[in-house]
Write a structure and sequence with these properties.
The protein is mostly helical. 77% of the residues lie in helices and 0% in strands.
Length: 119
């Protein structure tokens, strides 16, 4: 009797790691190339002053991006057992933290502009 898995040989751990590393390299390289193309396109559209302002805003948004999930999603992924109630709580935490970051960015925009000398 066949269960449909005989045509694929068993994958060893080093082979699986190399396969994952190759895919990771391809995805990262493709993403970086896309980012460069978009950056070059935007640089051609904007004046140097506007492009610099966009760079400053990207710094702040990047900082907020680092703290937006509070490490909650990786913590769920590493758990052996995940209950539905925990997923709901983490989802609520992520929503509240992102809303708080939005309010901080909106309310703090004048202060961030003054900090970077753009006010």
């Amino acid at each position: 009797m066949s269960n449909g898995h005989e045509r694929y040989p068993p994958v060893t751990t080093p082979a699986a790691i190399l396969h994952a590393l190759r895919w990771n390299a391809v995805v990262r390289t493709t993403g970086q190339l896309g980012t460069w193309l978009i950056t070059i396109f935007v640089m051609r559209l904007l004046s140097p002053v506007d492009y610099g302002l966009m760079g400053l805003a990207t710094i702040l948004l990047g900082l907020f991006g680092l703290i937006n999930e509070l490490g909650a999603i990786p913590a769920i992924i590493q758990r052996q057992q995940v209950e539905q109630s925990l997923i709901r709580k983490v989802f609520g935490l992520v929503l509240v933290s992102n809303a708080s970051l939005y309010v901080a960015a909106f309310a703090g925009a004048p202060y961030f502009a003054a900090l970077f000398g753009e006010a």
